[in-house]
Amino acid sequence: MFPRPAFFAGCELNFAENLLFPASQPDPLSLAIREATETTRRDVTWKDLRERVRICAAGLVAAGVKKDDRVAGYLANHANTVVAMLAATSLGALWTGVSPDTGVHAVLDRLKQVEPVLLFTDNAVKYNQKTHETHAKLSHVASELPSVKTIVVFETIPGHPFDLNAIPTKALVQTESTFLENADLSRPLTFLPLPPDHPVYILYSSGTTGTPKPIVHSALGTLLQHKKEHAIHCDVHPGDTIFYFTTCTWMMWHWLVSGLASGATIVLYDGSPFQPHKEMSMPLLIDELGINHFGTSAKYLSVLEQAALNPAKAEPKSAHLSSLRSIFSTGSPLAPSTFQYVYKSLKADILLGSITGGTDIISLFGAPCPNLPVHAGEIQCRGLGMSVKCFDASGKDITSSGEEGEKRYRSSYFETFTDSKTNQPIWHHGDFIRVNPKTGGIWMLGRSDGVLNPMGVRFGSSEIYNILLKHFSASVEDALCIGRKRPQDSDEVVVLFLKMAPKHEFSQQLVKEIQDIVRKELSARHVPKVIEETPEIPYTMNGKKVEGAVKQILSGTNVKTSASVANAGCLEFYKEWAQKK
């Protein structure tokens, strides 16, 4: 809808106030946040959280932060990050976050565009039982962000050295304690009333093939969507404990933090999901903290599936997941075999909610529902109030047909499809989906820009991934399925790259077995013509496979390597492969 109408015109609210003082009025001494790392635990009550936000907001005011300023966090997932975000938004400032595992160029690609006036950061972070210093990265970032006037360094790793004076910047670089020394600590916790569409968050597109685009989200839209999804779709009750494994870059961090608005306790975990007890690390954490709703990626669940993990039978420590009512999965399609694994080996009486949404809307299109059955391979339903439809390549609405179709701002998102009745442009999100006309569930088949189309047959890469997970999970650790069509090619060729599991070797016998099973269970048109071994699969910072950039490389396009690719170095393999083949 452009121009967009004003929703709830004349009303005012503050985003932070709604999270700090939810309608359910939780006991001030009950837990708002449970902070966890690989080795430590720390609890924050509602009373403590409000007090920390009050003090931090006073520090921001003393630093000159005001309405509409941008405040950035180059931070790990801990309570101070939530405190800083709530303090900033209580003043009407906009929050934008980037996790410390993000490379310098990726950080600058984002923050240069939004020009933050204040930057929060960590003195160091820990991951996979190792301490990682942040000084060098911050030095580079700070030297190229002239908009930043103040840098606040949290002592996230106690005692870890951090030379404030060695940061090459004109900004004032302070520890948290020094930052607060200049604050009026008698300042009460107040919330600036703002229009419903006042911006609260800035997120970014993935930027896998170009500079990430900043995406601004409003306070009321974010709040309403998240409360709807938590309370209605995900069955989150006041007092429940909700945990989504995420970094503060990913939209799921914002989604998790909004759990406070429903009166839930949120778990903030910073570290590897496989430490300190390998595959049992998260199941043991769920039992220890009494987590009711656990969110993760489809990739994580497939790793547990490949390991045939049964937490209740694990040695020497088992986990029974008795508190767990829901598991949510996103980031990529959840294979049908993984549905079966979860109900067989993790917990039978549980809501397994495969979900899909986007940074573009900071919420969900396809959502779970506690009142509907779960069908293997399907997202249960379309979100309440979300008009999700499938269109074929000609623009025909095929939502009810069960056929495969496409569901993607402005020129990128609104120029592909038009409503035939109103002649209004339709949002094209860019997922390749099929809607089950019997159940109303959604099958996620991959990204529409990564759709495979050999000999005119269109299918999604997840169909190939599902076959590999079902039949070859022991020998194949990961895979990347790409369609290749160069200017000189008359037809597209499906290329499948395999990353072999430890102690397993790539062979032509394996190639034949994969091709035979794909032919048997899918069709001859689905069979990858080329199957090759690869040392590494490229992923974004949010854990999504980078299919688009590899497709362009294989098809002869000169792709600038994006800093959004977490392991961008591995793209060299694909460039060399494309030149040889």
From TrEMBL:
Keyword vocabulary terms for this entry: ATP-binding, Ligase, Nucleotide-binding
Residue stretches making up the AMP-dependent synthetase/ligase domain: 37-406
Signal sequence extent: none
GO annotation terms (biological process): lipid metabolic process
The keyword Oxidoreductase belongs to this UniProt entry's keyword annotation: no
GO molecular function term, any single one: ATP binding
Descriptive protein name: Acetoacetyl-CoA synthetase
Species: Lithohypha guttulata
